[in-house]
Amino acid sequence: MTGSETLKMSARGSPRTRTLSRIAIYAVLAMAYANLWAFVNAKHVEPMRRRTRAKASSSDLPDKWKAGPAEIYTGVAQKAVYLMKENPTLFDMSVEEELEKLQEEKEEEEKKKSEMEANAKEDTLVLRRRIEEVKMNDRIRAVTELLYLKVCRKFQQLQVPLIPVLKEGGDVKFGNVDLKALTTDIYSKDALELVREHLFRIIGQQGNPSFAGGMGVVQIALFQAGQVYAMSAMFGYYLRRVDQRYQLEKLAGNFGAWGEEAPEVTSPFAQDQGAADSLKGYIESFGADEVQSMWSVTSVEAQMAMESQVTALFGDLRALKDKLVNALGMVSSPEEATQKLEQAIKKKEVESLRLTSDDLRRLVLEAVAYGSLLNDSEKQFDSIYELTPASNRIMGVLTGDEEGRMLNE
Fold first, then answer.
1. What are the backbone dihedrals phi and psi of residue 37, each rounded to the nearest 5 degrees, phi first?
2. I need a labelling partner for 375 at 20 to 30 A (CA). Which of 43, 211, 296, 388 fits?
3. To the nearest whole number, what is the mean pLDDT of the chain?
């Protein structure tokens, strides 16, 4: 039976069959998030001097001032790209002006819509609604691309080039950057500790006291790398959102902003001293509903900007997942999935990446920074242009799970 037949049968079979058929993919997801170094063994690690492409030339390294890997289509965004390259000091002002124009256009459309619905005939309304829908989608696309470029501009200001497109797989080399720009220059001390924990959890180096690492070579499936990037970007977005709330509530509590006449609780930290001691304790004090709310991306435009970055780098994660499942077929345990995945990579049945441990670290830190800076940019945009509220089920698009589950569901 082929992997494709197995996949089709599992989709319509019994619950037990569906569960077994998913073991392979969930084992891969777990390995991608918990310990990529399961694939760093004698077969996959070798000294750098044995590699045929041990050192990239300067022409192989990404252009420091390149906007990013995603394609830009709208006129306003292409103008912003030009300014980013030729006159970066005008970039922010130009983007703000475009957002103001788009907001005025949006308000004018809403005003016309109200007037039209009060007087127009039904057939006219149908045509008008279709025109409005097209214009709305055009605006969302334009704002999404501007938001994406705003994040790219922040990387430019940090003097850290975004990593190049990886969807072709093979050997990759990102070049050297100062990791300080992706760590201490972006986060508060509290948030930096959680970034460190996330990084060590991803690369399986718990307990390592620093970000420094060796130069071994790791080979992983392209789908796994995309999963790691997507989940790390979501983590960065969530972390920034929670950290800003934590710092604000702690400051408000210290200055008595919760009211002197409050009967018992004068601060959100009063009920749990652990929550006041650290950002980690504050997060652990959240209930399930609060976690779900904080984990979601606020706007459609921010969702699309995140999807654009992941898809531009790795391709469609859902298509990569399907290819991986077909290559693995039916498995009965995570151990078997690991074995089959190693074989599939060796036989080139699935796309894979070969990169150094330092470049893997760079990939994770960039993704976390991308999510954090996207959160910052989204807030700045929303103060000028009313962004489109989003649903909280983004993970299916980013992780390759068509049912939209979180990884731990």
1. -75, 0
2. 211
3. 77
